[in-house]
Design brief:
With about 350 residues, the protein is mainly α. The chain has one domain (about 10-290). Helices cover about 65% and strands about 5% of the residues. The chain has 12 helices and 4 strands, in the order H-H-H-H-H-H-H-H-H-H-H-H-E-E-E-E. A two-stranded antiparallel sheet has the order 1-4. Helix 2 (about 40-60) runs antiparallel to helix 8 and helix 5 (about 110-125) packs parallel to helix 7. The longest helix has 29 residues, at about 215-240. It is globular. The two termini are about 20 Å apart.
């Protein structure tokens, strides 16, 4: 369709970004189990988000390229940090020391359920048959894997429950982060990570947790930089492209990646369920990537600020000279009615 060269398949770009975020996070889970052995959960969480803070600091963009985080974002950032940088990683670190790496990785599939339902209820994101089919395929894959873990007796109940608590916390984190997706991802990662590090470091000190050795410290910092910092950046960019619910369900491929790495690292708790679950989850991701949602829709007048370019059919304001590539500034949209492929991004929150 003429005029929409960069957005003919918004779900494809968003899906790839979500897959990249999933790969980085999925790999981190069994590594955290190995590196965090014998450490307290607060210390582990603090080191992970210290690494994420470093990535956020390095990846900040100038104001002319990305919208800055504002003071009015602080309440939401505090909530995001509480659920995503304190409750989530602490529960995960505690659970990882009490269950298998594969079992913990697979339980993370439930994060997609919490994210999709919360995005549907809180933001009214469209959940058509294709999206629900993809979500159900991903959940069926995760359920297959978790059932196998339960039958094999390799996972302890308390550890799995703790990981489930982490998925619920991250589901809330993902949903709350949707409103921050148009801000500079580097600044969002940095702010969330700093708040999380401050809270978990204080809790580690108050509970008397021992400080880890140099090797574990360096390892957890590196895992935090990639699996929590870079992963969150790509996750926010994916949300920007096609919403919280779709990003969350594609991100559910992370458990399969983590379970596979756990097997490579010596966890032999997998079997037929791993193959079946992985196939179902892969099919769910493909369904998402193939999504094409197109119909006539109405845009109301809107004034906001975010990174944008002028080849997407939604930004026709004038520059002199015209910037090349994505840039950010406050701008206004006039009402318009048109037809093109779209996803529930910042410009497409209309009802169906």
């Amino acid at each position: 369709m003429c005029g929409y060269a960069s957005s003919d398949r918004p779900a494809f770009k968003g899906g790839l970004l979500a897959l990249l975020a999933a790969a980085l996070f999925g790999v981190s889970t069994p590594l955290v189990q190995k590196l965090g052995h014998g450490l307290g959960p607060f210390t582990t969480a603090a080191l992970l988000y210290a690494g994420a803070a470093l990535v956020g600091w390095l990846l900040r963009r100038p104001a002319e390229h990305e919208a800055r985080v504002l003071r009015t974002d602080l309440p939401r950032l505090l909530a995001v940090a509480f659920f995503g940088a304190v409750v989530g990683p602490v529960a995960m670190a505690w659970g990882l020391q009490r269950t298998s790496g594969a079992g913990a990785s697979l339980m993370l599939t439930l994060e997609a359920l919490f994210t999709a339902v919360l995005a549907w209820r809180l933001y009214g994101e469209t959940m058509d048959r294709r999206v629900w089919s993809a979500v159900l395929l991903l959940l069926a894959g995760g359920l297959s894997l978790v059932l196998e873990q339960g039958r094999g007796g390799g996972s302890q109940l308390l550890g799995l429950i703790a990981v489930m608590v982490a998925t619920a916390a991250w589901g809330m984190d993902n949903t709350l982060s949707r409103a921050l997706a148009e801000r500079d991802p580097g600044q969002v990662v940095l702010a969330k990570a700093i708040l999380g590090v401050m809270a978990t470091t204080c809790l580690a000190w108050l509970t008397g947790e021992p400080w880890p050795g140099v090797g574990a410290t360096a390892g957890l910092l590196m895992v935090g930089a990639t699996g929590y910092g870079l992963s969150l950046r790509f996750y926010l960019l994916a949300q920007r492209e096609f919403g919280a619910a779709r990003t969350g369900s594609v991100f559910a491929f992370a458990p399969f990646i983590g379970a596979t790495l756990a097997l490579v690292l010596g966890d032999r708790s997998g079997g037929w369920g791993l193959v079946l679950g992985g196939a179902l989850m892969l099919l769910g991701v493909i369904v998402h990537l193939a999504e094409s949602h197109e119909h006539e829709h109405q845009h109301e007048a809107l004034a906001h600020e975010h990174a944008h370019s002028h080849d997407d059919g939604h930004h026709d304001h004038v520059h002199d000279p015209m910037p090349s590539g994505p840039h950010s500034h406050a701008h206004h949209h006039d009402p318009v009615r048109h037809t093109h492929a779209h996803a529930p991004d910042v410009h497409h929150g209309h009802k169906h």
